[in-house]
Specification:
By secondary structure, the chain is an alpha/beta fold. Helix 1 crosses helix 6 and helix 6 crosses helix 7. Strand 6, helix 4 and strand 7 form a beta-alpha-beta unit. A six-stranded parallel sheet has the order 5-2-1-6-7-8, sandwiched between helices. The protein contains 16 helices and 13 strands.
Length: 388
Amino acid sequence: MRAFEGIRVFDATQGVAGPHCAMLLAQHGADVVKVEPMGGDWGRAIGKQHGEHSAYGLSVNRGKRSIALDMKHPEGVEIARKLAFEADVVLESFRPGVMGRFGLDYESVKAKNPGVVYLSVTGYGQQGPYSKRPVTDSVIQAYSGWMSINKDKDGLPQRISIIAIDVMTGLYAFQAVAPALFLRSRTGEGQYLDVPLAAAAAAFQAGKMIEYRLEGAEPSVLGAPLGTFKTSDGFINMNARRDAHFLALCDMIGQPEWKDDPRFATQESRIANEAALMEVIRPAMETKTSEEWLTQLEQADILAAKVNDYGDLFEDPQVKAVDQVVWLNQKGFDQTLPVPQIPGQPKIEPDSFLAHVPDPGEQADEILAEIGYDTDRIAALRSDKAIR
């Protein structure tokens, strides 16, 4: 039995953050109804679109049922209200005030459904001068300070090429909903939760913020030698900052005299003289292949790994040994798709419902039947273009 079996979720979120939260609830057994526009959740078109899906959409919508509604049609709004009023959890990701136009804001839903756990994913929060601003992951990477600590060799702040803040916001949202449901099981009371992307990005960077306060905008490095190094055939990441590791590395790169060099005698002195260290270590690392270095580094118990691309990772023996990536069939695709197992959750079973990503409106008929609509009424709704 999964923890949230019997829990009904009204998922009106789009993009990545909210859908990620809803997907985690689904994987734990909740019945998640994805309520999306007639054209589908805009997250289905992030990057290149493959039929009804994008890569990110596929990653955050497994295990849900979809109904697509025209919210400009009175019947579409009525269906959405019926679903929300019967849900244990309502998730939405619109700017403040939007859900209220449809009578689906927290107070309206709570009036009909007092025990509801209602969560909003916003950009900056419900109040404040930025509350109505639209955001994307990259905008929050800039706003939150994230880009200031990720600069290229010329000092230009960079975004990381993954929708990281949306994904972590989904995780924070899930960890907010889960204890809210537990509290409801003890008290019978629901609650309202707001999880802004800006707040999630800040929470994730707590250590860097404290470091900034204590050390300024250019804090010292965490250790030396530490970083990514070019080899003769690729790159490795190595952390040899501990004393024993550094001493072993000195022999490997042909610098045994460094063991007695006061510039490098302690972790603190190595940090202070990082430039001198790297000036010698970097060209030395280019004299051997990544595999040759990894063999030596592993023997000395020095922390290191090859810089993989995803193809390398899929074939990695450790990944295969723990079934870290499962290959799933998805309707509309002629090849299996890699999906990583989620730590702490039951393993994904290929070809199960929880492995399936719905097309927009795929389960409309069964969802409507469950809230009292007969076949003729459903056909009329479709004919009237209230549903897809």
